[in-house]
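re: ur question from yesterday

yeah so i grabbed the chain u mentioned. its 177 aa long if i counted rite. heres the sequnce exactly as i have it in my notes:
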Amino acid sequence: MTSTVTPAPLIITADDKERTLNKPNPVFTASYKGFVNNETAAQLTNLPIYTTTATIASPEGKYPITASGAVDTNYTFTYVDGVLTVKRTQNIFIPNTFTPNGDGVNDTWLIKDLDAYPNCTVSIFNRSGQTLFYLSNYAKAWDGTYNGKDLPSGVYYYVINLNTGDKPLSGYVAIIR
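ran it thru and got these structure tokens back, copy pasting raw so excuse formatting
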């Protein structure tokens, strides 16, 4: 007597992910629905592979994450696409103080995630409007100097143009020595 085992249906849903412009794609993952006998993805003969049309140079937008290629004789597979959202860095945190005193802590005015905007410009001015610091592409953080000399404690003003078509960011930064 021969018995036939009907494979169980297994739904593999690619998880939605996000990343910022000009950054590599994240590691793609999936969720599973339909495992039987306390099995997990670890028991599959071949795990699914994930693909997307988004590359590191892709513009802002939404891109499909496609799962495929899972193999196991105990299951039949249904795949559900996920979405990769490529976006500008939201909530860029621009510190309003730093303490360039050489102690290795908060010695520069570092704006995290600004490197996601390779065409940005950063300008620092004194209260008279004199440009004290200008940098294109934000390759290094400002150290509170002008012409190689320490600026005094005080308030300085910045304009950051992300060159995305959006309004430039502006505000103040205080040097505390």
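noticed a couple things. The chain has two domains: 8-87, 97-175. also The mean pLDDT is 92.
anyway ttyl
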